Amino acid sequence: MKLSYYEQGTGQTIVFLHGFPMDHTFWAEIQPRLSPDYHVVTPDLRGFGDSPSSDEKTTMETYADDIANFVQKQFPLKIPFVLCGLSMGGYIAMQFVRKYQHLLAGLILSDTRTKPDPENIAANRKIQAAKLETEGAAPLVDSMLPRLFSPWTLENEPEIVQKTKKMMIRQPIHGIAAAARGMAERPDTTFLLDSITCPTLVVCGEKDTTSPPDEMLEIAQLIPNSTFVEIPKAGHLPPVETPQHFTDVVRKFLQNLR
Ligand code: MLT
Asked: CATH code at 105?
């Protein structure tokens, strides 16, 4: 699997994993803010952006394997590196921790969960995946949008909402369906939290209803060496809703790694 990616800057490597159904441009506001001081790498996950896929279903483990292979091949001298995953990117980051923790200098879990889907949500994902071929991505994206942003963003930042929507709608149908099926079957990774040994930042938007702050605080409390930060005004997507604040939080974490 050859992943498409974008890289900018030099120094400590940070690999950013986007959410569902998105691509590396999700990080467009973060990459230039950090790249004066860091080597920022934003891959397109398998089946998203320009990364190919012929999978019927892609498990979170497979995405994690892709990232491990990619970094070891492209940037062997940049290991250990920092991994940041948002939402689905965080589900993948937890699978990465399970198999490849030895490659990590630090971990950032943003707006994500370690619990699996409740049965009804998993079933709904499978139905949505089947419908994608006939209906396209628009109905799925429209159903997701209201839960992605805080009320503040929805009211004050319509351009951000529209730009994010466009990015989601242009993702390949096949890749979206494979990810939805993979997420529906993702395992509980809560048991892994107390085995995370690298410094970890747990960050989320204060108005995130998908991975709410109280659930993320519980995640942070189970990780031995972790910091928890809540970002005011943001919902499920702080890197696009409040990019400067998100960058400041990540930068502070990275500075403390030194
Ligand atoms: C995401 O942002 O990646 C999605 O909200 C993940 C999900 O649907 O569970």
From this structure: 3.40.50.1820
Which residue's CA is the closest to the ligand 1 atom numbered 9? Answer: 88
254 CA → ligand 1 middle, Å: 25
How high is the pLDDT of residue 206? 98
CB atoms within 10 A of CB 187: 17
Domain that holds residue 26: 5-257
Contact 37, 9 (CB under 8 A): yes
**Residue type at position 231:** I
Rg (C-alpha) for the chain, rounded Å, is: 17
Write the DSSP string, 191-229: GGGGG--S-EEEEEETT-SSS-HHHHHHHHHHSTTEEEE
Query: Amino acid letter at 257?
Result: L
Strands (E), the chain: 5-8, 13-17, 39-43, 81-86, 104-110, 200-205, 226-231
Quote the tokens at residue 229: 């930060």
Residue 87, ligand 1, Cβ within 6 A: yes
Phi-psi region of 7 (alpha: psi -120 to 50; beta: other; left: phi over 0): beta
Statement: residue 258 has pLDDT above 80: no
How many domains are contained in the chain? 1
pTM, two decimal places = 0.98
Instruction: Tell me if residue 13 falls in helix, strand or coil.
Output: strand
- DSSP class of residue 143? H
Exposure of 92 in the CB half-sphere (CA atoms within 13 A): 27
